Amino acid sequence: MTCSQPFRADNPLFFQGWHPFSADALTAAFAGAGGLGVIRMPAFPDGEALVERLAELRRAGQVGMDMRGVLGDLSGRMEHAAKQLSAFVVHGSEIVPARLEALKAWGVPRVVEVRDALEAKLAAAQGASALLVAEGEALAERLRRMARETGLPCFAPAAGAAEGEALLAGGASGLQLRGPSLLREGAADFLEGFRRRMAQALERPALEALVGAPQAELPRLRIRNLDIPYPVIQGGMGIGVSWENLAGNVARCGCVGIVSAIGTGYRYPELAAHVAGRPSQPENLNSSEALTRILHSAREIAGPKGVIGVNILCAINDYDRVVRDSVAAGAQLIISGAGLPLGLPGLVGDADVALVPIVSSARALKLICKTWQRKYDRLPDAVVLEGPESGGHQGFSLEQCTDPAYSLEALVPEVVAERNAWGSFPVIAAGGVWDRADIDRLLALGADGVQMATRFIGTFECDAHPRFKEVILRADKSTIALHGSPVGMPARGVKTPLHARIAMGTAPRIRCISNCVAPCGHGKGAAEVGYCIADSLGDAWGGDVEQGLFFTGSSGWKLRELVHVRDLVGEITQDYGLSRLREA
């Protein structure tokens, strides 16, 4: 097989660009119909399992490996699988030199995802076999230029029929089909032949199960005057797991992007005074200037229709100032928990900002509504009900976290009933939400939307350090546990060397430089549990696996892949091409 053979054809080639559950059936159908099937690789692949998987799929036709999210070793059985069984590999243009050389040594055709002509020329010079033009503005223009200047086959992503036809007319060698809508009967004339071949390869009922529309469309989410295409809020994660890149891209994809307002002094150290490498005191830990810069960047990424909010812990010192800073910086929504934000409306005043408290019970919601109505003549614009499967701090005792009476499914109807007594603002269910099935189940119980955090750690756009992501991606069920926190609540995260050092009494000395949370009492709470939460979360932000604290939800062990936010939103909503955004 010559280097470019899989990508040279008289007719357009169709490249698999989405991966639903049971993706191998879709991959086989693409390959069996004469297209290019793609398997999305785990971050740390099992070489033996990969060999078996590829051997089975290659019976159907041309199947390649998407290497963009692979963090593990490329030698051994992984190398064997690629050399002997993979028709091609896909990787990004920002690949590190050593990894690029390893892929080149395999001698397997390489498809390189590129954003502009400069990256395209570099990929061509490095021996790429074909180009995958990244989504974005002026796609057709970029495609024509890349094809002209490199002479390589160029694939372009397409989610709609008109867009696909225009790209093929403009010189695309083929299309990366970004969602199932193009393969539905009658959707695109130029795909009818390919669709028929897929139906022959897979059998029509099985194909319809993969490319048919979901049984029910998800409702839109309306919070105050904000209209959100999908009923999904990305949960705030600090320190530095959800800042401008993650929140901005989530909002750009039609969900609510949430910036963590905590620890912003780590993001821009030049804007905050430091002592011994730590932001000194709350005004530097939660830097106003840094938060403003982060929020402005997030809103720029999100675009004019994207919704960007902040998450602010009630427990932090300087809470009032951080709320005012968030309003001044342009946050459209404030989510606040780790305590009851009873005075939040008074801090916001007349600003047009949606206020969303986090509660763990109907009783807590009742107290908030009663207080806000009496003191401020205002009710919440939405409420997040966070169950005991979430990452980070819990609003439950250790015993309650494992009691079925306090499960999210048990609490949703109670909180919905309490909401109904006050109005019709949305109830957002959070904690352990993983996929579309979870979303459907919670909506059926009366929730209006969901909040998801842990799944967004497994995205390229997540602001966390690569080693932070690696800790979560390597975690198994037994290593995710509840532990004590200086905040005075149980907290869930991955057991790491820090926890072993705490048990042995050799954890880092507590200095309380940042004075982060009021319940800690300026280091007293930290002394009781054996670590400083601000320092440990800051170390995790910096990728320090030995001393960092790595929060994740109870489902964190399921994370095995790195994907783009756009692909994740498509999967959890089952609107793979994000067609709702084009309709808006």
TrEMBL record:
One of its GO terms (molecular function) is nitronate monooxygenase activity. SUPFAM superfamilies: Inosine monophosphate dehydrogenase (IMPDH). Keywords: Flavoprotein, FMN, Oxidoreductase. InterPro entries: Aldolase_TIM (IPR013785), NMO (IPR004136). PANTHER family: 2-NITROPROPANE DIOXYGENASE. This is Nitronate monooxygenase. It comes from Mesoterricola sediminis.
